[in-house]
């Protein structure tokens, strides 16, 4: 009996000490988290895809600030569902990070999977970048301006839009062209950027929804860039506000970031976010992002989660408006 009372007394004193110190013991434990094995960053795209390249560059720069070992791996397929499901089936121990983009959320919604499991099952810990959407045409296209393309369609022609990796860019196409009176368009999806631009440059489509970086990789030019400010190298290209369209279209961009399975130790997340902040402030990373016409972001859990939530809500709304998903599918 005395022994039991002694144990109880020790427990009460210990808890009292923790509360009296404002939980400093817990905070200290979080800050002391250090990886004891390699951390895998799992991309939703194939080797050579945008997020794959950015993740590998991120790891290269992160080596300046940590002795931790990162392994960049790829598990492409189903718009990101293959990689997402794999991460959700791993232990929530912090050793598997999901490198994702809006295409994953779009795939979840397209398949009408439960958001509670496939979206809320992740902790969105760091949003790395914003990549504006734009409308692209071949460099030798007859259309010199976005207005010319719109007028051509209003004259009775249908705009065939190619877009890679059915998902986020399709949503953007619907939001842009669906908001213009008198315009007819059809979005044709291709499973990769390479096939997408092969179709565009081969004359199978009139225009493509893409990103500013595509102007560096392919023989294409931008008619409009959806960004509030000018994109380096595309200063002469107008945004939607300058064209007299809804300025909200300039705030829709493709983000790319990292998530972990819900339940991952808070200490790991704190450790990773501190490391990511150092990478984000590194001039090599900034120069790399700028050269690829990307905006560096440092959004952590609260801000990133809000971005994800807004993406889910808007995607459901858009896809239901074009009868791509059932009307009773809910968040």
Detail the topology: elements first, then pairings.
Elements lengths: L1 H19 L3 H8 L7 E5 L6 H13 L7 E5 L6 H8 L7 E5 L1 H9 L4 H4 L3 E17 L7 H9 L3 E7 L3 H10 L6 E7 L2 H9 L5 E4 L3 H4 L2 E7 L26 E9 L4 H16 L1 H9 L3 E5 L1 H21 L10
Parallel strand pairs: 1-2, 1-3, 5-6, 5-7
Antiparallel strand pairs: 3-9, 4-7, 4-8, 4-9, 4-10
Helix pairs in contact: 2-11, 5-13
How would you characterize the overall build of this protein?
- The structure is a single chain.
- With 331 residues, this protein is α/β, with parallel strands linked by helices.
- It has 2 domains: 31-130 and 253-321, D-Maltodextrin-Binding Protein, domain 2; 132-251, D-Maltodextrin-Binding Protein, domain 2.
- Helix content is 42%, strand content 21%.
- It has helices at residues 2-20, 24-31, 50-62, 81-88, 102-110, 115-118, 146-154, 168-177, 193-201, 214-217, 266-281, 283-291, 301-321, and strands at 39-43, 70-74, 96-100, 122-138, 158-164, 184-190, 207-210, 220-226, 253-261, 295-299.
- Strands 1, 2, 3, 4, 5, 6, 7, 8, 9 and 10 form a 10-stranded mixed beta sheet that branches.
- Helix 2 (24-31) crosses helix 11.
- It is globular and about 65 Å long.
């Amino acid at each position: 009996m005395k022994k039991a009372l002694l144990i109880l007394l020790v427990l009460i004193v210990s808890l009292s000490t923790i509360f009296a110190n404002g939980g400093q013991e817990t905070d200290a434990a979080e800050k002391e988290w250090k990886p004891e094995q390699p951390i895998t960053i799992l991309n939703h795209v194939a080797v050579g895809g945008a997020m794959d390249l950015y993740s590998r560059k991120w790891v290269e720069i992160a080596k300046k600030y940590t002795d931790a070992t990162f392994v960049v791996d790829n598990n492409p397929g189903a718009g990101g569902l293959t990689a997402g499901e794999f991460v959700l089936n791993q232990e929530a121990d912090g050793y598997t990070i999901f490198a994702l983009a809006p295409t994953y959320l779009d795939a979840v919604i397209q398949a009408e999977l439960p958001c509670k499991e496939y979206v809320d099952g992740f902790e969105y810990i760091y949003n790395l970048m914003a990549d504006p959407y734009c409308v692209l045409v071949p460099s030798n296209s007859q259309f010199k301006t976005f207005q010319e393309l719109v007028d051509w369609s209003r004259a009775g022609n249908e705009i065939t839009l190619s877009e890679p990796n059915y998902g986020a860019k399709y949503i953007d196409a619907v939001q842009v062209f669906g908001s213009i009176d008198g315009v007819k368009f059809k979005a044709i999806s291709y499973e990769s950027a390479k096939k997408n631009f092969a179709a565009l440059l081969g004359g199978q489509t009139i225009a493509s929804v893409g990103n500013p970086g595509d102007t560096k990789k392919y023989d294409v030019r931008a008619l409009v860039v959806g960004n509030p400010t000018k994109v380096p190298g595309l200063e002469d290209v107008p945004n939607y506000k300058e064209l007299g369209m809804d300025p909200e279209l300039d705030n829709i961009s493709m983000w790319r970031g990292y998530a972990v399975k819900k339940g991952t130790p808070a200490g790991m997340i704190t450790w990773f976010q501190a490391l990511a902040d150092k990478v984000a402030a590194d001039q090599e990373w900034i120069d790399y992002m700028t050269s690829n016409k990307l905006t560096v972001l440092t959004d952590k859990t609260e801000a990133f989660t809000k971005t994800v939530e807004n993406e889910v809500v808007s995607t459901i709304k858009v896809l239901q408006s074009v009868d791509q998903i059932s009307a009773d599918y809910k968040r």
